[in-house]
Predict the structure.
Amino acid sequence: MKCIVNGKILLPDGELAGRTLIFDGGVITGIGDKPVPGAEVIDAKDGYVSPGLIDVHIHGFMGWDASNGRVSELQLMSRQMARWGTTAWLPTTMTLHWPELSLCFSAIRRAMSLSLRSDWGGAQVMGCHAEGPFISPAKKGAQNGDCIQTPDVRKVQTWTDVIRLMTVAPEVDGALPFIRAAASMGVVVSMGHTDATAREALAGIDAGITHATHTFNAMTPLNHREPGAVGVALGDDRVYCELIADTFHVHPMLFGLMARQKGDRLVLITDSIQVAHLPDGPHDQSGQTVIVDGIRCRFPDGTIAGSSLTMDRAVRNFAQHTGLPLYQVVNMASLYPARSVGIDGKKGSLEAGKDADIVITDGDFNVRSTFVRGECVYGA
């Protein structure tokens, strides 16, 4: 049994000081007034005791990528992400040819099993976010247009235990029956890389879409006469909206607006890519040149290629630019992502019976220690 003391415990509805978080056997058992006799005591040193952060949209970083289809790279990413407070994640694949995607899904399936072992040493792999290949060529962004395909539910049927989230453009031919079928099989369908009108976006939501991929980016914008996919995603309470809170993909003046509009349907993500955290300058990414410039990752023609964000920085950025209480922002990086992909029964908050996925930070939310299912995978 372990007890964390001297910290401000971040709960879904507020902060709790002067109490003790208790966990045993990988599961949170409760919050008490003082440590349990005989338990290992961990001193939070007046920092925050936060639920582990959950990233439902991340491709790679430091030269590693989920689209390379290697379990070893998924483990390396899991271990590094723990340093940034991420305790659960969805490796996110790019739009590839289906045989290549199948190799990626196979590796992720293996990593899902291995990440349950204590020697995995990092964030737990909860399944895959397949970003494509059933998207719009008009809004492909950094995706490979040659790999875009017509929606085919038969391809997905083999992988429903792996694909937890899938980005689809609702306006492409065959999308609506695909969305209905995929949703009925338990796949969370996200609207993204889409050229949909408001009417087409709403039809997709009516068919089963409950998520929007990196809201504002690679989708039809909000206009006062044609609300587009952005307007529908922001206005429909059935939809969780992802946000890349790096202050580059979306202007920080919109952070507060999104928080007020979406409430508990706002999900912070990184959308980090393979070249993230490499030195500034040009780098090869799967045969394409991507130029890293601080928080910006672009192709030579200026197209945004992804981000170099981490989840702890996303929390700090959002809190700084909105002034919201930290516990509310942490919900956007833990509880709400968990709910959006159906894992909140075990993940996303520091409640009794849930996995002991815990992050101890300093007063500025810099990570000191990370626990995954009760095991310390980073820090002391």
